[in-house]
Amino acid sequence: MSVTLDDITALAKRRGFVFQSSELYGGLANLYDYGPMGTALLRNIRNLWWKTFVDDRDDMVGLDASTISHAKIWEASGHVAGFADAMIDCKSCHVRMRADHLIEDYFTKKGKEEKVEGKSLEELDVLIAKEKIPCPTCGKHTWTTVRKFNLLFPVHLGILEESQSLAYLRGETAQGMFVNFKNVLDSTRVRLPFGVAQLGKSFRNEITKGNFVFRTLEFEQGEIEYFFDPEQTKWETLYEEWKKTMWEFVTTTLGVNKSNLRWRAHTDEERSFYSKRTEDLEYNYPFGYKELWGLAYRTDYDLSQHIKFSGKDLSYTDPQSNKKFVPHVIEPAVGINRLFLMVLADAYWKDEQRGRIVLKLNKTLAPYRAAVFPLVSNKPEIVAKARSVYTALKSAYPTVWDDRGNIGKRYLAQDEIGTPFCVTIDYQTLEDNTVTVRNRDTAEQQRVKIDELKGAVA
Ligand SMILES: [Zn+2]
């Protein structure tokens, strides 16, 4: 992979894809704001996801749950007790860091790999002591013991301090589907097997390695809970179907290079105790292969937990056999911001021959389908003609107008935001009603009749 994370962050800032959050006041670590181009790209990713997994299917419905949620939800889900990072403090310089990062970075520097996932707090203490791992900030070896810090953001509801109640910003969107399972069942015509999909923000107060938008405190998820009767539907079959669907979405709909993708099965230590199988679809980011999209068979664990904690009946009754049972679930869960970063990394192309940087985005992902230029901005007939072309094209596709600087500069700017077509209105247009259409990837130009322009950029 030739593109670096620095290449991507520089382009993202230069062209208005991503900005540091609260930059004006010094910035906040691991939080980002999406600029005009980033917002358009994110929205296109979201819309394609929703179209593929909800609108184009007849076994899926949508949900949009609140981000602030009842503390009991997170007790039932196990997040209050178990959703925590193992942290360690340096007693000399008081820096606090994740124990797994400390150990992994130490071994990486020595050219070795050390898997810390699944190790107990005591095992981490032993390893740090045995290797005499020094503090990366001050070089001393004076650590506290490893302790757990919860990742959920607490929220205090109510204006009177004495009657405030504790809630949490959701740590995942998935719980919204489980706690609304009965509501969806009772209010729609769904029958098993069916899925509930949700797009939305989640929040985790964690220390991250700062790989740009890969892992942030606030992030967007696209999660599906696919409910089924394990006696009617073999989970292995469903699981393989979902793998195919996810792969297809990434490689065809988003147009990402297959050679940068791989499946990785979770080891026994990584996998949650209730999950029968978990695999991650991983992308080869500039910082290595990392999880893009998780696929987990979670059995009936989640609904059963909420039955236990709420005391409510969340079972399903089969309309034919009247069999009453708690459905099982398969969960495909993707980070929308990870899709975004993958798409940027995969599309980034240094065209050294022509001395330009190009985002080779799929047409359906690009912030603009076309840009319209009047060749010169001081000839009223040309500008008026260009305006009418622009207005007509804009009714069909997101289209941008640019009459600043010379044509070469305008092309470079559009290449860097991935606009597939640049349309120029020139003197010849006034004579024969044709325009030049320049292709982003080949930089070739052809003359197209204005009447046929919509088809030419389709
Ligand atoms: Zn230190």
Describe the protein in words:
With 458 residues, this protein is of the alpha+beta class. The protein folds into 3 domains: 251 residues, Bira Bifunctional Protein, Domain 2 (BirA Bifunctional Protein, domain 2); 67 residues, Herpes Virus-1 (2-Layer Sandwich); 89 residues, 3-Layer(aba) Sandwich (Rossmann fold), CATH 3.40.50.800. Helix content is 33%, strand content 28%. Helix 2 packs across helix 11. The two termini are 31 Å apart. The protein binds zinc ion.
What is the subunit organization of this protein? single chain
CATH superfamily of the largest domain: Bira Bifunctional Protein, Domain 2
Q: Main beta sheet: strand number and arrangement?
A: 7 strands, mixed
Architecture per CATH nomenclature, i.e. the level-2 architecture of the largest domain: 2-Layer Sandwich
Helix percent band: 25-40%
How many β-strands, per DSSP?
24
**Global outline:** globular
Q: Supply Rg.
A: 26 Å
CATH fold label of the largest domain: BirA Bifunctional Protein, domain 2
- C-alpha termini separation: 31 Å
Overall CATH class of the largest domain: Alpha Beta
Number of domain modules? 3
Percentage of β-strand residues: 25-35%
pLDDT < 50 stretches: none
Task: Look at the structure and give the mean pLDDT.
Answer: 94
Spatial strand order of the main sheet: 3-10-11-17-14-13-12
